[in-house]
């Protein structure tokens, strides 16, 4: 774990660049074109790239060195942003859609590669703590990126925002390149990875058959969670405006600040509890956490007074952080040769849910209230979670405790990990 905190720092810096990039580029597209359609098309291209690159990333991560893929992904994003920065004003608009493809694809590749590598970097017994640290770093980066993007653009301009963004990816690539970490299981690394890689279609079929129905149910729930997440993201500005038309940003700020606090607290708590007990929450904990998360988001939009609404946002954020760590840690129990494709499938499912939800919830909000739309999308997630819980109860099945001699890749009592 001694090197992993440096990796978390580098990943958090690149995440800050990604969130700064998300705001600055969207605003730049609108300012440069004066067209809401162009801005929407830019977002659509990036989301579509995220979805497609999930499938591609799963194969790349299974075949090639993950550390090099992560370094390359950060460098590609840095080069793309520097190209945009140095391009003449008349050419910049045309480069934006190419940039959307590069940043969307590379960010997904980097995420899939890193999540697939965690058990090999820190040891399987430390993966929950490592996931908690990573998610905490990204949550803090999200807050910093969103909070500073307006100030950077307003006071320093788009060029400074693009330069800062590119620098964040260069720092992340440098940190990853210099860290002496192993990102692939020893047997796979010795075999060269690609030489023994089976046909991807057959491998995917074996994964589906070998893990169905529980793991596929968890991935499906994450996709529906993406629908729910998009619904409250789209509905929040409308709901906040209805609460205080004179200060529409007030409730939005309260919501995201409280959500982030709950998210970070949950991540720290689960990391500490897992470290002390040596046990990882399983499918039941994931389903219960997702139910609580969706119920919390619905409560936020139910017209509660400010204090109860803030408490509901805190609960939703805590449950969100909890389920994120449990879900990622569960997928990481898969064998190393399968892990990349599972995370690629998961990334595609989550991005598909979020992108589809943005379109559908935006259309539904023309007719229905924010509460109705949010309750419909998050209610669907609750129904799926309840079905998963029922399946687990009926079958009497939770994730089995591993025997003492089980090899790394399953839950074990916490011992001193690798660097």
Automatic annotation (TrEMBL):
Chain residue ranges for the region called Disordered: 400-419
Subcellular location: Cell membrane
Single GO MF descriptor: transmembrane transporter activity
Signal peptide region: none
UniProt cross-references to Pfam families, sorted A to Z: MFS_1
Domain of life: Bacteria
Domain Major facilitator superfamily (MFS) profile stretches: 3-399
Name the UniProt record assigns to this protein: Major facilitator superfamily transporter permease
Organism classification: Bacteria, Bacillati, Actinomycetota, Actinomycetes, Kitasatosporales
């Amino acid at each position: 774990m001694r090197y992993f905190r440096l990796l978390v720092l580098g990943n958090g810096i690149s995440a800050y660049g990604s969130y700064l990039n998300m705001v600055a580029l969207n605003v730049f597209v609108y300012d440069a074109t004066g067209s809401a359609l162009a801005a929407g098309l830019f977002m659509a291209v990036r989301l579509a790239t995220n979805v497609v690159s999930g499938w591609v990333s799963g194969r790349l991560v299974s075949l090639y060195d993950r550390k090099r893929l992560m370094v390359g992904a950060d460098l590609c994003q840095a080069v793309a942003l520097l190209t945009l920065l140095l391009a003449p004003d008349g050419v910049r608009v045309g480069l934006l859609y190419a940039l959307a493809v590069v940043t969307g694809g590379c960010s997904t590749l980097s995420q899939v590669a890193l999540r697939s590598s965690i058990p090999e970097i820190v040891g399987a017994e430390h993966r929950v703590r490592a996931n908690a640290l990573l998610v905490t770093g990204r949550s803090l980066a999200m807050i910093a990126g969103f909070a500073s993007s307006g100030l950077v653009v307003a006071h320093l301009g788009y060029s400074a925002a693009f330069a800062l963004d590119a620098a964040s990816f260069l720092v992340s690539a440098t940190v990853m390149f210099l860290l002496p970490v192993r990102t692939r299981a020893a047997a796979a690394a010795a075999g060269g990875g690609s030489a023994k890689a089976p046909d991807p279609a057959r491998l995917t079929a074996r994964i589906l058959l070998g893990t169905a129905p529980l793991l596929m149910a968890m991935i499906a729930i994450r996709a529906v969670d993406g629908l729910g997440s998009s619904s409250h993201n789209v509905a929040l500005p409308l709901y906040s405006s209805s609460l205080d038309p004179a200060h529409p940003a007030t409730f939005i700020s309260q919501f995201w600040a409280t959500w982030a606090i709950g998210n970070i607290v949950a991540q720290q708590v689960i990391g500490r509890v897992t470290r002390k007990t040596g046990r990882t929450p399983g499918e039941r904990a994931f389903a219960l956490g997702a139910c609580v998360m969706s119920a919390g988001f619905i409560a936020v939009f139910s017209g509660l007074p400010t204090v109860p609404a803030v408490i509901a946002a805190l609960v939703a954020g805590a449950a969100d952080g909890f389920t994120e760590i449990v879900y990622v840690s569960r997928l990481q129990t898969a064998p190393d040769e399968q892990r990349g494709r599972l995370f690629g499938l998961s990334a595609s499912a989550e991005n598909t849910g979020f992108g589809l939800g943005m379109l559908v919830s935006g259309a539904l909000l023309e007719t229905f209230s924010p509460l109705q739309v949010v309750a419909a999308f998050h209610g669907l997630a609750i129904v799926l979670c309840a079905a998963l819980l029922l399946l687990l109860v009926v079958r009497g099945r939770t994730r089995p405790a591993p025997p003492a001699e089980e090899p790394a890749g399953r839950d074990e009592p916490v011992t001193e990990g690798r660097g």
